[in-house]
UniProtKB/TrEMBL annotation:
Signal peptide range in chain numbering: none
Metabolic or biological pathway: Amino-acid biosynthesis
UniProt GO MF annotations: glutamate synthase (NADH) activity; glutamate synthase (NADPH) activity; iron-sulfur cluster binding; oxidoreductase activity, acting on the CH-NH2 group of donors, NAD or NADP as acceptor
Record's protein name: Glutamate synthase
Gene3D superfamilies documented for this protein: Alpha-helical ferredoxin, FAD/NAD(P)-binding domain
Length: 490
């Protein structure tokens, strides 16, 4: 029974982030561990609604009211069990997910929603610190084997589910370390990599085999996979970065895709290289794009010692609160989102678009020419309209394109399996998560397109359930979403 007055007695409160002057000197996570009293009070705000819409906000179907009340009563091990029942990696989602569950919290109709994400990550932290996270190897081997291509959240979730069901699972990753974008695409100030390593250690003890530094399709072919395994899951993400090739001056020295900046920066933090070819130190940096990746570039540029940073967004400045009937609860609201990196400095300019990258006689970037714009939709077609007379230049030595991803990369493995990308440059799947190739399944961003980490884990779990059934194994695994499931929206 929850505390019926909890939301009346306590206001929404998050733990204080590490001070900006301190945290920009390193890459450690911006949030220190939260005190138990704070987390207990925040969990007490949960009303245990008769219809908990937070369940629909999260594709994993997390039992949020259940583990909130267990935290309220200080039953940490039971809370961890309840959380892990639906989420393989709450230590990832509690740090990285933007929390659509909070947008769907019933308390959010007339008050600030429960700090679901913060409670979640503290449960996960307690679970590791107190030794609740233990390997769960299958008691009996099935005799079946599965190859998982890609070691991001979708591939790892599927691998863990299948290994616990008794199947022999091998995860292939082309990078030199396991983790996908979690490893090299997301800075340590959002998730330190020992967090990933702790979960990988559990999975290894459960029988999952990891093969890093293997480019599937080149180092090992589709025929090799078919010969060695009974099923294959493709979970290689959607890493084809959206570019700005049509913008004049794109070829200038100093204009780069965001991942070209983030990956080497993360490798330096990991001690795998000493320098990066794209260093913001002393430079005037322009970041194009206002989402998560842009904020990641912003935080890294601060830590590299940029002279100035300006982040550009085509869309107008969003409101601080939901726009009433045009943006109704419990859908994901269109509001201004401030990331930790925005506290650290830099300027944000909304409602503008780059018209040209300006260079010098040596082919080096010196400025960007921008103009005020409005984004309109006519007959469903998105059009950017330039406001006359608003063009001006911003000084720039480095431009980082953080304008999203265009789908999964075209790669030899796909043609070897006889699979084609669809018009969105991702792979189609039938209701059983199977591609057009027999015994070859797909999950995560490679199927859905670039999306949230909770969707990747949910699809990985659902694809694992489909593969388990395909292999003729006894019983059923949980499948939180269908292959045609979509986020909660108007």
């Amino acid at each position: 029974m929850p505390d019926p007055n909890g939301f009346l007695r306590y206001q929404r409160q998050l733990p204080k982030r590490r001070p900006v002057p301190v945290r920009i000197l390193d890459y450690k996570e911006v949030y220190p561990p939260a005190g138990e009293e704070l987390i207990r009070d925040q969990a007490t705000r949960c009303m245990d609604c008769g219809i908990p819409f937070c369940h629909d906000g999260c594709p994993l179907g997390n039992r949020i009211p259940d583990w909130n009340d267990l935290v309220r009563t200080q039953q940490w091990e039971a809370a961890a069990d309840s959380l892990h029942a639906t989420n393989n990696f709450p230590e990832f989602t509690g740090r990285l997910c933007p929390a659509p569950c909070e947008a769907a919290c019933v308390l959010g109709i007339g008050d600030d929603p429960v700090t679901i994400k913060q409670v979640e990550v503290e449960i996960a932290n307690h679970a590791f610190d107190l030794g609740f996270v233990k390997p769960q190897p299958a008691p009996v081997a099935s005799g079946k084997s599965v190859a998982v291509v890609g070691s991001g959240p979708a591939g790892l979730a599927a691998a863990q589910q299948l290994a616990r069901a008794g199947h022999a699972v091998t995860v292939y990753e082309r990078d030199d370390r396991i983790g996908g974008l979690l490893r090299y695409g997301i800075p340590d100030f959002k998730i330190e990599k020992h967090v990933i390593d702790a979960r990988l250690a559990q999975m290894s003890a459960e029988g999952v085999e990891f093969q890093a530094g293997v480019d599937v399709g080149t180092d090992i072919t589709a025929d090799d996979l078919r010969e060695r395994y009974d099923a294959v899951l493709l979970a290689a993400g959607a890493l084809a970065g959206r570019d700005a090739q049509e913008t004049p001056g794109r070829q200038l020295n100093g204009v780069h895709l965001a991942m070209e900046h983030l990956v080497p920066a993360n490798r330096i933090v990991a001690g795998l290289q000493d320098t990066t070819p794209i260093d913001a130190h002393g430079k005037h940096v322009i970041i194009i794009g206002g989402g998560d990746t842009g904020a990641d570039c912003l935080g890294v540029a601060h830590r590299q010692g940029a002279a100035s940073i300006t982040q550009l967004d085509q869309y107008p400045l969003p409101p601080d609160l939901r726009a009433g009937v045009k943006d109704p609860w419990p859908t994901w609201p269109l509001i201004l989102r401030n990331y930790a990196a925005h506290e650290e400095g830099g300027d944000r300019v909304f409602g503008v678009a780059v018209q040209e990258f300006v260079g010098d006689e040596n082919g080096n970037l010196v400025a960007v020419r921008i103009a005020d714009v409005s984004v309109q939709r006519v007959d469903g077609v998105r059009t950017v309209v330039i406001a006359p007379g608003t063009e001006r230049e911003l000084r720039a030595d480095l431009v980082l394109l953080a304008i999203g991803f265009e789908g999964t990369e075209d790669q030899p493995l796909l043609s070897q399996f006889g699979i084609s990308r669809n018009r969105r440059n991702v792979l189609d799947a039938d209701q059983g998560w199977q591609t057009s190739a027999e015994g070859v399944f797909v999950a995560g961003d490679m199927h859905k397109g670039a999306s949230l980490i909770v969707w990747a884990i949910a699809e990985g779990r659902a694809a694992a359930a489909a593969i388990h059934s395909y292999l003729g194994a006894a019983g059923e695994l949980p499948a939180p979403v269908r292959s045609d499931s979509q986020p909660l929206s108007v």
